[in-house]
Amino acid sequence: MSIAKMIAAHPQVGGDLNEPLALAVRHAMFCAAICTSCADACAAEEMDMRQCIRTCLDCADVCDATFKLATRRTGSNELLLQEMLQLCVTACDICAEECARHDHEHCRLCAEMCRECARDCRAALETF
């Protein structure tokens, strides 16, 4: 199943899909899951990973809210959507920077996903 297909099937979208926004939604969904998983892995590390855990969980929550808001196509709330996309960029940038400080594979993967999500949210913002 594709989230892009689901969004395109919405009666108010009428098949005229904003591809960059659909990609940002997809990656925000993935990023929320990966950040949550990274936070859990950080909790299992023997070193103090409190800041990384906090940053990952904050990013996961922002990504979760962003993809939920962006999949709603009934009516319009473009200003709020733009603000959420920008907040997602900020949260992902912060999380990628924090995870890059640690020499753990889960943090490396999380930082990579955060960078992808931030890039796609920036691209989606350019469509408004």
UniProtKB/TrEMBL annotation:
InterPro entries xrefs: Csp_YhjQ, YHJQ-like
Name by which UniProt lists this protein: Four-helix bundle copper-binding protein
Source organism per UniProt: Allosphingosinicella humi
